[in-house]
Amino acid sequence: MPHKPLTIYKLIILYMLDKVNFPLTSAQISEFILEKEYTNFLTLQRAISELSEASMLTAHTTGNRTYLSITAEGSSTLAFFRNSLSQAIRTEISEFFKENEIEMRNESSVLADYYKSTNGEYQAHLVAREKQVTLIDLTLSVPTEESAAAICDNWRQKNQEIYQYLTEQLF
Questions:
Q1: How far apart, in whole angstroms, are the C-alpha atoms of residue 64 and residue 52?
Q2: How far from chain centre, in Å, is Cα 144?
Q3: What pLDDT was estimated at residue 66?
Q4: Collapsed DSSP state (helix, strand, coil) of residue 60
Q5: For residue 112, what is the enclosing H or E element?
Q6: Which residue from 14, 15, 139, 148 has the least number of CB within 10 angstroms?
């Protein structure tokens, strides 16, 4: 029985989320689906929204990134309909992960966000995770938004060196 295109897009999303042991950003999923020209951005967002409403995936937003994870309901649904996804699409997804997994894992493991606190200062919230374990969770209070943004940018680029420095100094 042929499936509607939106159903196939949903299966691609669930399959991608099922293949990794870390959350993917909606941008990472979009990169694959739009690069392969399976659909357009609006249809992709509709598929993600419907999967979320059906409790097949969870979404949480940090800063300007939305992280997606498959739920037990999504895994069950995927198991039932897995064969509806062609082998060619599954192979393309596997190749995409082979080429991009390290970068994707790092993007999901290193979080940096800032916000204005009630006292008027800015809080830069920095997190590094490895395999679902939080290695460091640090919040710095700074006087300006520019400083907070710079801290977040530097954290994304230098988190490994900073973490190593801290552990060397503290142990």
A1: 18
A2: 28
A3: 83
A4: strand
A5: strand 110-116
A6: 139
